[in-house]
């Protein structure tokens, strides 16, 4: 089988209201990039109907579903997705459409053109409440201090990683981690671009 060029890894926890809309927007974007791709959906122990919806999507050859036994948290779920991914470039994003799938080509072309190891993203016009945005400022400050890397928005999970970075993160066997920060340990060339941000399409945030 020919080699996968692009993997998209999406953690899913109780997202039954969003999954159909997510795939309706994501699949045409992936097709339009003319790369060999896979979409990896990780069910993080959902208690709603998410897993059965994911299993239906898995009828498509380009979809892989990972089923976790219980709720391990968003970053552990992404790590599980990484471990079954095979793309040269791996993009992560949320399942609730706060990260517009239409931004993926931009992320990938910046990575390719600039030979970056990691491309992060800054949410333009962030659609979250003040009570979420304010703590993020502190998290961003702490992450900059700890990593020594001057990224502005560590919390946006719409990010692209090159395979060697992902391989090293998997090899860490670190399951309770903050992936954007861990990646910087293994990445030499890192950048950040502005992306759009949307309201959650349906359902409720898992971090009220
Ligand atoms: N998520 C997950 N496990 C959890 C909590 C969240 O896999 O325990 C997923 C969730 O389905 C979504 C992403 O992580 O795809 C971000 O979660 P959410 O949208 O609830 O967070 P917020 O955007 O409010 O920070
Ligand atoms: Mg969200």
Helix/sheet category: alpha/beta
Record the strand order, biggest sheet.
3-2-1-4-6-5-7
Shape: globular
- Helix-strand pattern: EHEHEHEHEHEHHE
Number of helices: 7
Model description:
With 208 residues, this protein is α/β, with parallel strands linked by helices. Helix content is 38%, strand content 20%. The protein is built from seven helices and seven strands. It has helices at 19-32, 50-57, 74-84, 104-114, 130-147, 163-171, 179-186; strands spanning 6-12, 37-43, 63-67, 89-92, 118-124, 159-162, 190-196. Strands 3-2-1-4-6-5-7 form a seven-stranded mixed sheet, with helices on both faces. Helix 1 (19-32) links the parallel strand 1 and strand 2. Helix 6 (163-171) crosses helix 7 (179-186). The chain is globular. The model has no long low-confidence stretch (mean pLDDT 96). The protein binds uridine-5'-diphosphate (UDP) and magnesium ion. Magnesium ion binds at residues 94, 96, 98, 200, 205.
């Amino acid at each position: 089988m020919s080699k996968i060029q692009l993997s998209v890894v999406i953690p899913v926890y109780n997202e039954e209201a969003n999954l159909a809309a997510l795939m309706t927007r994501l699949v045409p974007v992936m097709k339009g990039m003319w790369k060999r791709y896979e979409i990896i959906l990780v069910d993080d122990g959902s208690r709603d109907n998410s897993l059965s919806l994911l299993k239906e999507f898995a009828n498509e050859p380009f979809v892989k579903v990972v089923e976790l036994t219980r709720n391990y948290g968003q970053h552990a779920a992404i790590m599980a997705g990484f471990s079954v991914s095979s793309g040269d470039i791996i993009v992560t994003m949320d399942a609730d459409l706060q990260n517009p799938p239409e931004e993926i080509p931009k992320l990938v072309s910046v990575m390719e053109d600039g030979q970056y190891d990691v491309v992060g993203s800054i949410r333009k016009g962030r659609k979250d409440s003040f009570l979420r945005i304010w703590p993020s400022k502190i998290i961003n400050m702490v992450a900059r201090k700890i990593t020594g890397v001057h990224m502005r928005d560590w919390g946006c999970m719409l990010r692209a990683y090159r395979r060697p970075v992902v391989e090293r993160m998997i090899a860490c066997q670190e399951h309770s981690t903050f992936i954007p920060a861990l990646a910087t340990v293994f990445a030499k060339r890192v950048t950040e671009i502005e992306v759009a941000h949307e309201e959650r399409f349906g359902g409720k945030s898992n971090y009220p």
